[in-house]
Specification:
Layout lengths: L1 H8 L14 H17 L13 H18 L4
């Protein structure tokens, strides 16, 4: 959470919107909420580590979407 917030706050020309102006504690609570949801419903939600290299993140997203499409019969 802290890395993402630091990255968002250092964007040139970007003004903080309502969410970016929130505290780290707020974002940590939101993150914990999503992690809890993912634990309860792993068939619906995937956790993808966005700190990995971009190409790896893209690959993991594509894989998760492919699995979803196959499961839903849309492949």
């Amino acid at each position: 959470v802290r890395v993402g917030l630091a990255r968002a706050r250092t964007r040139q020309g970007a003004t903080a919107d309502r969410f970016e102006a929130e505290t780290v504690g707020f974002f940590e609570k939101v993150r914990e909420g999503y992690l809890a949801l993912a634990r309860r419903e792993p068939q619906r939600l995937r956790i993808i580590d966005a700190a990995a290299p971009l190409s790896e993140v893209e690959q993991r997203i594509a894989q998760a979407l492919g699995e979803l499409q196959a499961r839903e019969g849309r492949a």
